[in-house]
Amino acid sequence: MALLSEDVIQVELASMDRWTYSNNEIYKDISFQSYMAGIGFVNQLAEIAEAKNHHPGLTVGWCNVGVTFTSHDQGGMTSECIAMAKTVNVIL
Asked: DSSP letters of 26-46?
């Protein structure tokens, strides 16, 4: 899978709510009404990520989850990273 150019990444992110791009990865910080709601989100995302074999970096806090995507195998952003970020938006 080919790496995406920064221009393509920026075009994709323009249509995606609150995702940021930095250091060859995209990131979104998500707030939840409760800690367990965040954990429920993480569990849903983990199932999809495992099925697609494209796993996010996750930071879980109190009523907050940070989600990061990059392709470690490719060394940057791929279309699968963008697809997974869009999946996060669908789950939400």
From this structure: EEEEEE-SSHHHHHHHHHHHH
